[in-house]
Amino acid sequence: MKLMKMLAVMAIFSVMSTGAEETTAASATAATTTTSTSSIKKLYNKVKESPFSMAYLNDSFSSFNIDGVKTYHYLYAHYGLTSTDKISLVPTFTTDLISRNKVTRERANNTRLHSTQLRYTKSSILNEKDHGVSLYAQVRYYHYSKSNQESGSDGYGRAIISASRSFGKFRLSLTSDNVVYNRNANKASMTHFNMLGVGTSYSLTDSFSVSTATNWYKYNYNNTDSFKEFALLGLYTEYSFGNGLSVGPYFEAEMLTAQDGRDGFTEEWVKNGSVGATLYYSWF
Asked: Where are the beta strands (DSSP E) in the chain?
C-alpha cells in the first residue's frame, strides 16, 4: 500500500511538472513573438524617420482600339540628401496582356524588366511665399533592359522643369520636358523630343482632386527636319485614403497632330484615346 501511495504521489508531481514546462514554453514563445514584433516595429519607425523612403506605382491602361491591358510597375527607392535634394532609383517592369497567341488566341502574362531609372530632384528652387511661384527641377537617366535596347537605343536622358502656383484649392502649372536618346545603332530613328505642358488641378476635398493636362510633344528623327508633333489631353482624378495609398482613374487622347506640316484635329480622338488607372502606395 505504501508503495502504491508513493507511485501515485510521483505521478502527480510528474503531471504538475509537465504542465509547468508547457506553460513556461508557451510563455517563452509569446514573449519571443512580442519581442520580435516590437523589434520589427522599432526598425520600421527608425527607417521611416530616416532619409530613405520607398513606394510602388501601378499604372494600367488600355486603348479603345486595342483589345487588352498593359501595366507599368514602378518601384521607388528615394534617399533625401537635404530637405530639397533627393536621389532615386526606380526599376520599372511591364506586364503585357495585349498580345495574343496566333494559334491558341490566349494572352500570355508577359512581365519583364523595362528599364532602370536614376533620378535627381531639386525642389523648392523657388517658393510661393518668397517668389510668388513654386519651381522644381528633375534630371533622369533611363537605362533600357536588353530586350528594349534592340530598338537602337541604350536608354535616354531627361530634364524636367516645372513651375506652379496655387489659388486656393485651384493650382496651375507649366512644365517643360526634354529627352535625348542614347542611340547604339543607326537604325534608331528617334533622336530627341521636347514637351511643353499646361496643367490644372482642383481639390474638391482633402482626399479627392481632379486635374487636367494639355501637353504638346515634338519628336525629331535622325537629327533632320523630319518630325512629328501632337497635343495630348489628359483628364485625371485621384483619391487618397490617408494611409499612403491612393488611386486615380484617368483618360488620355491625342487632340492635334502635325507631321512635316500641320494636319489639324485628330479624327475620332475619343476612340483613339486610352483609359487607365493608377494605384500608388508609399511604405514609408
From this structure: 52-63, 69-80, 85-97, 110-126, 134-144, 153-167, 170-183, 190-203, 208-221, 227-240, 245-258, 264-265, 274-282
Q: Contact, 92 vs 115, CB < 8 A?
A: yes
Q: Which of helix, strand or coil describes residue 43?
A: helix
Q: What are the cell numbers at 141?
A: 537617366
Query: Tell me: the pLDDT tens digits for 133-147?
Result: 999 999 999 999 988
The residue among 124, 155, 154 whose CA lies nearest residue 140 is 155
pLDDT tens digit string along 90-101? 999 999 887 666
In the block, residue with C-alpha cell 542614347: 182
Closest CA to 176 of 133, 231, 216: 216
User: What is the pTM (predicted TM-score) of this model?
Assistant: 0.81
